[in-house]
Amino acid sequence: MNKSELMKTANEIRKGAITGVYSAKSGHPGGSLSAADIYSYLFFEELNIDPKDPKKPDRDRFVLSKGHAAPGYYAALANRGYFPVEDLKTLRHIGSYLQGHPDMKHIPGVDMSTGSLGQGVSAAVGMAISAKLSGDDYRVYTLLGDGEIQEGQVWEAAMLAAHRKLDNLVVIVDNNGLQIDGKIDDVNSPYPIDKKFEAFRFHVINVDGHNFDALKQAFDEARTVKGQPTAIIAKTIKGKGVSFMEDQASWHGVAPNDEQYKLAMEELEKAGEALCQK
After folding, report:
1. Model confidence band, residue 94 (pLDDT cutoffs 50, 70, 90)
2. Is 131 within 8 Å of 138 (Cβ atoms)?
3. Largest Cα–Cα distance in the chain?
4. Per-residue pLDDT tens for 22-34?
5. What pLDDT, on the 0 to 100 scale, is given for residue 277?
6. How many helices (H) and strands (E) does the chain have?
7. Using one digit for the tens of pLDDT, what is the confidence trace for 233-258?
């Protein structure tokens, strides 16, 4: 995809995430919106995957470590062709396969069930080690929240990843600066994030998580790294794309009401129309 197509896809992912959370009357819109551009680049450009063969052995693996950002993840999978976009409206409904957190047993394209913060990155490290032991060349990507990296398990996994020289592992931190209780640096500051990963012997790339040229450069660079894992620290805006949600911790885990949903979708529809005119 070219940059314009990736931007349009990210907008569709945002629409899908908002629709899912609104339909469920619960969920996490803020972190889904901040990660939408990352989802778009990963699932439509970077990852070696095939919706027609979700379990193909040589596929790249993706683990959503911040499992609560599932609405955006599901929207990316749906738009990529793993299941109908219409099913996003069943999010968190009784009997729906689209649960509040990713479920690898029931959702096509999901490689790991996640939800408990800090644990997804450990699973990703295990997958990367498995590839090395088996002589497979697939790559493993995991997306973490910046509040999530306050969990100690993240750094245990990081220590092992560097020790095992997992150059097939890319850790992406969605650095939107906010968590459910407020600013991450007020709650329990993880800064400087890049220096911490460098201390754990990662190759570190700082990037604007909403700039597709920058994302391409970052992921291309990660592929050249040998002998150590890569951490991409993506600076983003929580709630990106919906003006009244942007940079507001209150939208971490709250569903929009009828009027808010209408306003959000109107904004995203206009954004999509503007992208089509470019």
Report:
1. very high
2. yes
3. 53
4. 999 999 999 999 9
5. 82
6. 10, 7
7. 999 999 999 999 999 999 999 999 99
Write down the residue that tokens 């220590």 correspond to: 159
Q: Which residues pair with 231 in a beta bridge?
A: 171, 204
Which residue matches tokens 């095939």? 50
Q: Which phi and psi angles does 245 have, rounded to 5°? A: -100, -20
Rounded Cα distance between 156 and 274, Å, is 45
Tokens representing 245 are 């949600």
Q: Which two tokens stand for residue 103?
A: 């479920």
Residue type, 107: I
3-state secondary structure of 201: coil
| Amino acid of residue 116 | S
Alpha carbon 205 to chain centroid distance? 17
Whose CA is closest to 16, among 66, 67, 77, 92? 77
Q: Where are the beta strands (DSSP E) in the chain?
A: 61-64, 140-145, 169-175, 178-179, 182-183, 203-208, 230-235
Please tell me whether residue 81 adopts helix, strand or coil conformation: coil
How much is the CA Rg of the chain, to the nearest whole Å? 17
Amino acid occupying residue 145: G
Mean pLDDT of 93-116: 97
For the beta carbon of residue 192, count every other beta carbon within 10 angstroms.
11
Residue 100 tokens read as: 């509040």
Both tokens of 175, joined, read 């650095």
Q: Please state, in angstroms and rounded to a whole number, the distance separating the CA atoms of residues 80 and 265.
A: 21
Three-state secondary-structure class, residue 45:
helix
Rounded distance between C-alpha atoms, residue 216 and residue 188, angstroms: 31
Quick check: pTM over 0.85? yes
Both tokens assigned to 9: 């896809």
Average pLDDT, the chain: 97
